[in-house]
Amino acid sequence: MHPFPSRRPAPSLSAPLPWLLLVLDSLLVVGFAAMGNRSHETGLALAQVMGTAAPFLLGLLVSSLAVRFWRRPSRLWPDAVVVILGTVALGMTVRVLSGGGGAEWSFILVALGVLGTLLAGRRLLSGLITDRRSSRGGQRTADVQPTPR
Fold it and tell me: How sure is the predictor about 8, in pLDDT bands with cuts at 50, 70 and 90?
């Protein structure tokens, strides 16, 4: 008998859902960059936003690959923590090394807070949705059930 009979097999690298969730994470990082650009009046043109977002997107990609995101794309511990810290640490490092700006403590703390909330929140919500769907056997999650005829 398997010691964990209720565990589902981890999704494979070719499963589409983890990749869609990584794209969603990327959009959250781009949104973070756009909010920063807007609040600091550094421009909202696509090239400007992507220039701000690029170091953090690289950090997101590297840290997501490090935790093998395709296996458990909604896991909070330790995956989300590693992805959040990796996204901010690598993003700040690449930003400074590429001459894209500084990494003041206030910016690091804001980035940790905002990206931490966005990336952990996405994992929390997608985990709840996945758990709810699996608890219903993959059926629709609507509260209203069709009435029998």
Answer: low
Q: CA-to-CA distance for 129 and 27, rounded, in angstroms?
A: 19
How far apart CA 27 and CA 84 sit, in angstroms, is 14
Assign 9 a pLDDT band (cuts: 50, 70, 90). Answer: low
Residue 35 in tokens: 């909010």
Cα gap 18→24, rounded to integer Å: 10
CA 84, distance to chain mean position in Å, is: 8
CA distance 149 to 146: 9
pTM above 0.85, yes or no: no
Rounded CA gap, 81 and 74, in Å?
11
What does the block give as tokens for 28? 């959250």
Annotate the chain with DSSP letters as a single string: --S-TTPPPPPPTT-HHHHHHHHHHHHHHHHHHHHHHHHTTS--SHHHHHHHHHHHHHHHHHHHHHTTTTT-TT-IIIIIHHHHHHHHHHHHHHHHHTTS----HHHHHHHHHHHHHHHHHHHHHHHHHHHHHHHTTT----SSPPPP-
